[in-house]
Amino acid sequence: DTAVSQTPKYLVTQMGNDKSIKCEQNLGHDTMYWYKQDSKKFLKIMFSYNNKELIINETVPNRFSPKSPDKAHLNLHINSLELGDSAVYFCASSPGGLATDTQYFGPGTRLTVL
Amino acid sequence: GQQVMQIPQYQHVQEGEDFTTYCNSSTTLSNIQWYKQRPGGHPVFLIQLVKSGEVKKQKRLTFQFGEAKKNSSLHITATQTTDVGTYFCAALTQGGSEKLVFGKGTKLTVNP
Lengths: 114, 112
Prior knowledge:
Helices cover 0% and strands 55% of the residues of chain A. By secondary structure, chain A is an all-beta fold. Chain B contains no helices and 11 strands. Chain B has strands at residues 5-7, 10-14, 19-24, 29-37, 43-49, 55-58, 61-65, 71-76, 85-93, 101-102, 106-111.
């Protein structure tokens, strides 16, 4: 029944490691997003994909690489993790490709880099 | 870049008191959305305003969009402990890139 799901929910890792976060939506939406929420709760968009195509790519280090194998999945791979990557990462989806569409957020992945 | 300023950053009220958070922009907004994030949870969509001067209500929540479409407010009447959380506005600026820009949120705590 879960609309937007993410795995894992928690991720604790050492600096320099590579890790991936997975996201799946069963809402039939065309657009998916990755957001980063820092310790001050600031939500900032990182990427968006519409039907597997990259639409938005904010100023994000190229250590972050999104991949969308199909429109229901959007994964985020992070290379060479740094302390500053510690945050909660939210996946979201919206019905169409418009920023005026409602965004449905996943439960989040809390990443802690030691 | 495009910014949406949200105030106050924190608000602490006694149960039963009213609460208001404001969202302001220096540029005209195409729309504004409001989200609520409970502690430990994820943002959940509350409402979207599109028209100049629009007012929408959801039970004890009243949402307004300014006449100039540069500001918005969320007002909660007679807060309850279930209202606790962080309230975010998010907006798409006219002529800007097709992405929602989120305010920094207002964290509401309610004393029972």
